[in-house]
Amino acid sequence: MKVYRLSASVAAVALASLGQAAAAQDVPTQAGDVGVGEIVVTAQKRAENVQSVPIAITAMGEAQLQQRGITNITQMSAFTPSVQIDRASPFAGSSTIMSAYIRGIGQNDFGFNMEPGVGLYVDGVYFARTVGAALDLVDVSRVEILKGPQGTLFGRNTIGGAVSVVTADPTHDFAFKGNVTTGSYNRLDVKGMVNLPITDTLAASFSFGSSHQDGYQHRIPYTVTGKEVNPLTGTATGPVAGSTILSNEGNFLTSAPVGGSSTQGGENSRSIRGKLKWTPARDLTVVIAGDYTHANEEAAAETLIATNQALGQPGGNTFATFYNLCVAGVSALPGICQIKGKVNTNLQATGKYLPFSNGFITNNIDTTYANGANYSYVTAWGTSGTIDYKLSPDVAVKSITAWRRLTSSFGTDIDGSPLDMGETTFSMNQHQFSQELQLNVHAFADRLKSVVGAYYFNEGGDLHDKVVFGEGLVQVDGPNAFTNKAWALFTHNNLKITEALGATFGLRYTQEHKLFSGGQSELNQIGLTLGIPPAAFPDPTNLSRVFPLGQFRQAATNTSIHAGLEYHVNRDVMAYASFAQGYKSGGWTTRLAVPLAATTALNPDPTQPPSFRPEHANTYEVGVKSDLFDRRLRLNVTGFWTDYKDMQLTVTSAQTAFVPWFINAGQSRIKGIEVDGEARPIPALRVTGSVSYMDAKYISLGSVATAAGFAYGFKLPNTPKWSGSFGATYTADLGRGDSVALHGDLNFKSAMAKDYQNDFIQGWVNLVNANITYTPPVDHWTLTLGVDNIFNKRFLVTGNQNDGFGAKVGTYNRPSVWYARLGVKF
Asked: Strands 552-570 and 573-584: what pairing?
């Protein structure tokens, strides 16, 4: 009921504003006054004022990004209502991963078997993988965040929305601009762009970026106290003070090399981009672009929050449970204490292993006893060619051809101890080709604006999971290979019925075909030890293999529509209502630890890997976009209702042998309202604000989800009930042609779940940032001093309740940081 009262009150404000606008629109703009400015977007595949597009969009140009200190795409979520973008993924350890949610729909798993729920596009090119997608923003013209399903214009995997990054094109004027930033944790960022006119028809630009910042979580040595208590037996076990702590760390076939940095959470990346723009004729433009990014970083910070090895208790009966029984001299099951694989060690024989317990919790989120994998290497590069050709003043053809490649390896020690209780390492290689053709038509004296297009996408690659649990009791070696082909036909049309009334209709038909083969093995053959008969294994000649044999296929088709009406109250106010559909591809569960014959309750056919269907969303939206009081006030209000079906969720339970399985868990309903505004009461002052309210809940859950602990009262992940931001910039003229700009902003989010099973609830967070910029009389350089997170608020970015090794771990945000930036331009 609260949401309806809120909607009514906001509607009243909006209606009052419309009346004021009608009265104020004819008042002449006084000399020297400056409005809120216009942002041109390409959300409908053509350049338009964002205020005339009947889609909920948050768009920021280069000046706004710099003013707010936004240097990475993930920082946009702090200033965008109903959007949560994290630079992390559970148990992955790489800060290059973009986990994006818009209006409660997204994806936080990086696996090749999972598709993102929010599509990322750079200059119209789709980035299919979330690894490497947490982009540093270098020479960016604008960023557009489109909310709600974008199934007709952008296609599959934009079920939550789309993020579109548009980089600057070359111009025919020589220019150079750049900046150097230093700050906390030895931060050093260097960015630059040079624009080179070559001939009257050819121009080039070259941009580069380098970012470095030390890690904020310190790896500290663990000191034996002689009082280590086994949580299962309640007695002191393990080495006495001064003796050697034995660990098999670094000896496993699937582990990463031990050593490296003494901190976690550090960032270190380099990127370059080049563009050529050729205009051989007035009606023809060709842009060739290439980019390269390389990150050589530490793993993300991982904090051990709790452990649980209690037999018979929720989260108990884990591999850490068996390990603790072994080192206490108790044999839980015959043969379980014998590590096979590369190590071939009997845990009971040494008597010098530490038990795994809460004794490894440091009680400081910025320290850890971890000493294992700590790296993230990502290289991504690609080329694209864009051709724009005007066949006539009313007809234009556009072609976007692109090829991209991604190679990566990353790993993290998630147990927070000097033991190898939980260590995850991964390598991913991917390549993709895409081709899009668009025909843009203006007809009937510009009353019809239509785009008709075709799209083709071809992707291939592999992901190799390497996971160790329980000091080697379980060693998962999981090579997987994927290919994916998809094509689509689409159209999107805006028809002006009268001068005030318009209609929108879009349609997209998609076909996709996926191939997958997996070779997952458990090198310690824990399945045999647990009593699974050899006949249950997929390969009788290799009892380490747990994944079904063969190559597996999925095919899917989808038709999505977008329909709406727009009404222009006057030239400054537009109201609209729309219906939009979107879907996200299906796939397979690839992470197995035991053969599927042991989990027939979840997957009745052990010869087929567990699969999940595509998910779908239908969204109803109403909105008002307005520029009021001679464009001194911009006020946009949006209400939405989404039916989210066949939700792809992660479950981890005894049924899944404590490894993540992906299922179609059920259905949810998400409704909310967003208010976004900007004001320029006087030329020197700019005020921005946005508020979002979302009411999200499960309305249907399947038996597998409820058996894994899901409940109807659970929060949807990354979906705060309240979120918003308020900011102000005041520019003071110092009287000599120079100026000082003071900027401050407050960003807030109410409590939200960081995982599907609600093991991690992030409390209400308020972040305050501020900066001051000096601009001299000759505008060739600027100096900015700023502080992010002034009051040092710490909160969970992501988390993982891992019942495989019986521990709860999380990644916390970076502490308060200061920075100083010198910018130059010529």
From this structure: antiparallel
> In angstroms, rounded to a whole number, what is the distance separating the alpha carbons of residues 275 and 157?
28
Closest by alpha carbon to 488, among 514, 440, 437, 454?
A: 454
Q: Classify 324 as helix, strand or coil.
A: helix
Distance in angstroms (rounded) separating the CA atoms of residues 702 and 235: 43
The separation between the first and the last C-alpha atoms of the chain, rounded to the nearest angstrom, is 57
pLDDT over threshold 50, residue 31: no
Rounded to 5 degrees, φ, ψ at 224 are -70, 130
Determine contact, residues 136/72, Cβ cutoff 8 Å. yes
CA distances from 124 to 46, 161, 591 (A): 11, 15, 33
Look at 540 and 487; give whichever has higher pLDDT: 487
Give me the mean pLDDT over the 395-423 stretch.
93
Contacts of 16 (CB under 8 A, 6+ apart): none
Give the Cα separation of 375 and 300 in Å (integer): 8
In the chain the domains, ranked by start, together with CATH numbers, are: 2-220+254-313+334-825 (2.40.170.20)
The 10s digit of each residue's pLDDT in 674-716 is 999 999 999 999 999 999 999 999 999 988 788 778 889 899 9
* Cβ(267)–Cβ(75) below 8 Å: no
Q: Quick check: helix, strand or coil at residue 17?
A: helix
Phi (first) and psi of residue 453, to 5 degrees: -150, 170
Strand ranges inside 75-168, DSSP E: 83-86, 99-102, 105-106, 118-122, 125-127, 140-147, 161-167
Q: Which candidate, 339, 323, 305, places its Cα nearest to that of 233?
A: 323
Q: pTM for the full model?
A: 0.92
- Give the list of residues 6+ apart from residue 604 with CB closer than 8 angstroms, or none: none
Nearest Cα to 637, choosing from 679, 676, 687, 672? Answer: 676
The Cα-based distances of 626 to 18, 52, 579, 637, 682 in angstroms read: 8, 9, 21, 9, 19
Q: What is the CA radius of gyration of the chain?
A: 28
Give whole-number Cα distances, 793 to 761, 764, 816, in Å: 15, 10, 8
Residue with tokens 């499960």: 698
Burial of 27 (0-12, 13-18, 19+ CB in 10 A): exposed
Residue 195 has pLDDT above 90, yes or no: yes
DSSP state of 596: G
Residue 673: name the closest of 13, 165, 144 by CA. 13
pLDDT digits (tens, 9 = 90+) for 235-245: 776 665 445 56
Decide: 754 and 718 in contact? Cβ < 8 Å.
yes
The predicted pLDDT at position 572 comes to: 93
Q: Running DSSP on this structure, what letter comes out for residue 734? A: -
In three-state secondary structure terms, 348 is helix
CA distances from 158 to 81, 213, 459 (A): 18, 32, 17
C-beta atoms surrounding 302 within 10 Å: 28
Helix (H) or strand (E) run with residue 634 in it: strand 633-645
Q: How far apart are CA 737 and CA 751, in angstroms?
A: 46
How far apart CA 377 and CA 355 sit, in angstroms, is 32
**Cα–Cα distance between 137 and 406 in angstroms, integer?**
18
